[in-house]
Amino acid sequence: MASSQPLRKITPETDRNTDDKPSLMQGSIRTDPHTLQRMKDDQVIDLIRDTDAEISKLQALQLRAIADLSVRRRRAPSVASEVALALSITEHRASSIVSAANALIARLPRMLNLMDDGKLDLYRVMKITDATAWLSPDRVRVVDAALVDRVPGRNATQVRRAAAHAAAKADPEGAALRTERKLVERRLALHHQDTGVAHLSVNNAPTEKATAAFARIDRAARALKTPDESRTLDQLRADVAMDLLLSGTGGPSPRTEVFLHIDLETYLGLSESPAVLAGRGSIAASVARHIIGGPDTTLRRVLTDPQTGQAIELSPTRYPLKRDEFIRVRDQECRQPGCTRPAQSCAVEATRAQGETEGAADQPITYCSRHRKLKGQPGWEYEVTPDGTVNVATPAGQVHSTTPPSLHPGRRRGNWFGKKPRK
Fold first, then answer.
1. What is d(CA 18, CA 262) in angstroms, rounded to the nearest whole number?
2. Exposure class string for 404-418: b at 16+ Cβ within 10 A, else e
3. Burial of 252: CB neighbours in 10 Å, binned 0-12, 13-18, 19+
4. Which end of the chain is more exposed for a tag (fewer CB within 10 A), N or C?
5. Mean pLDDT across 273-301
């Protein structure tokens, strides 16, 4: 029988004064890396909590600044583009943060105060702004007051559930309408990952249809799960779902064109250098060769500059070469800094050459539909330098640049972007 251990006295924690603790510890740890090792476990946990509280306070300050910028720009959609460039994040993420900032200032001031006090961070507060976005101003104030004592100390799932419950209680009829709105927003989403695989999902599908679809896939997968089948049930479900989408009752699979950039040595199996799938990023050499080996694959020769890897000629072996087709192969992706939309889904837009007036010696550049619209917004300026670099000036006077992408996978100068002040 194990020897008994004295029970520790467990009491709820009270608010602790954390002023300046994280900043003082940061200086101490930078000068002496062994500081953390000399701390006791409870001190390390306290430091983790204290730094999290400080991060929340800084996030509140950042959200106030973002909301102020949104007001200055008269809540123009381009604010998300400006914030995305400033923070080096995607425009989808920036748009969500801008919406959250505006909601906290105008609709949920108590939740913002919790952030000021270090009791609620950005991730959790966005669960609340999302769950209450559909409420009227009067009802959202009721929810704001009701959540003050319910969300501190709760994780993101608990916060989301508490906010959704409070919102539905404040407006039961609106909750039903929200379900209808979500159904209107249903969509198919494809997210490519960095290992040659992707995530495919149907968002906001009707519950009854999604449940029925999963049941059908599950039945087919279980029927295939024989003693000789090495695949797991999860793998079988995924394979069955893809087979139904590609060769089921939905009709024949249409041809889809993607641009795969691979050097000759990798293509021949003499090298394992990664290839580049335009708009998706690097993929393993074996995956690239598998794609090339498909029965319907068409190969095109692209001549590149040996120094920069930039495309200079595309062979017209499949059909007569068009200028726009070459531009898309050359650019690979939308040339807006930070955008990874594949060039095949982009339009070719004339862009002012550096040192020239509008319309004089314009250069053709690929932009997705979103950034074609942004290019025409007041305060946004675009130019192309002689080496193909695209410079984008924001309304705040910040300049962001993208260099021309390289078709040499080993030294790809992709759509990265730098920042510099406007001269």
1. 54
2. bbbbbbeebebbebe
3. exposed
4. N
5. 70
Do residues 262 and 248 touch, judged by C-beta distance below 8 A?
A: no
* Strand runs labelled E in 109-259: 187-192, 198-203
- Long-range contact set of residues 76-80: C-beta below 8 Å, sequence gap at least 24: 76/377, 78/374, 78/377, 78/379, 78/380, 78/395
Q: Nearest CA to 119 among 46, 43, 67, 57?
A: 57
Give per-residue pLDDT as tens, 230-239: 999 999 999 9
> Which run of H or E residues covers position 261?
strand 260-261
Helix (H, G, I), strand (E, B) or coil at 56: helix
End-to-end CA distance of the chain: 77
Q: How far apart are CA 46 and CA 39, in angstroms?
A: 10
- The pTM (predicted TM-score) of the whole model is 0.70
Q: Sorting pLDDT into bands at 50, 70 and 90, what band is 357?
A: confident
What is the distance between the alpha carbons of residues 278 and 132, in angstroms, rounded to a whole number?
38
Q: Which residues pair with 187 in a beta bridge?
A: 203
Q: Alpha helices of 73-108 — where are they, by DSSP H? A: 78-87, 91-106
